[in-house]
UniProtKB/TrEMBL annotation:
InterPro entries attached to this UniProt entry: HSP20-like_chaperone (IPR008978), SGS_dom (IPR007699), Sgt1-like (IPR044563)
Pfam families referenced in this protein's UniProt entry, alphabetically: SGS
UniProt GO MF annotations: protein-folding chaperone binding
Higher taxonomy: Eukaryota, Metamonada, Diplomonadida, Hexamitidae, Giardiinae
Record's protein name: Sgt1-like protein/ putative SGS domain protein
Organism: Giardia duodenalis assemblage B
Domain SGS span(s) in chain numbering: 87-168
């Protein structure tokens, strides 16, 4: 995937961003534009099978392509409040956002297969089957220790504040 090795120009009219791709003789099958689902600032333009990634300085949506004899005009709805003084972000910022988007995509995929762990089932069982004092002790110890202590002994927990116990 290349970044900007094709000729293009752009202009903004109200809430519409227009990107002109200067390649003559294009058909509607030879060009496409898609906005990334995770990061609406990323626009992928495919021209004659070659993909070009543009990291725009603001979020866009609804790409619409109009083919003309000497160019293809891509109209996009601007969905962010960024004033487009320039079209693309710097390469460094673009790389960071891309890495962040990839990280979240992989997290989404990894989270789909997660099943409840055995430890969570044990804790849930203790809480559901415990007495009111046990439930109170579990809640108080967990909240006051910032999630580092989980006790079922109300006599111990009710005597005073529960201090956080960080792992060694």
């Amino acid at each position: 995937m290349s970044n900007t090795d094709f000729r293009y120009g752009w202009y903004l009219v109200g809430k519409k961003l227009f990107i002109d791709v200067y390649t003559s003789g294009l058909t509607s099958e030879e060009i496409s534009a898609t906005v990334d689902e995770v990061d609406a600032c990323k626009l992928t333009i495919t021209v004659k099978g070659k993909k070009h990634l543009l990291d725009l300085c603001g979020a866009v949506s609804d790409p619409c392509i109009n083919i003309r004899p000497s160019k293809a005009e891509i109209a996009l709805q601007v969905s962010s409040k960024v004033a487009f003084t320039h079209l693309l972000k710097s390469e460094e910022v673009a790389a960071k956002r891309h890495d962040k988007a990839e990280k979240y995509r992989s997290m989404d995929v990894a989270g789909e297969d997660d099943a409840p762990s055995d430890l969570m089932a044990v804790i849930r069982n203790i809480y559901q089957n415990g007495s009111d004092e046990t439930k109170r002790a579990m809640l108080k110890s967990y909240q006051e220790s910032c999630g580092t202590v989980l006790s079922t002994n109300w006599a111990e927990v009710g005597a005073g504040p529960v201090a956080p116990q960080l792992p060694e």
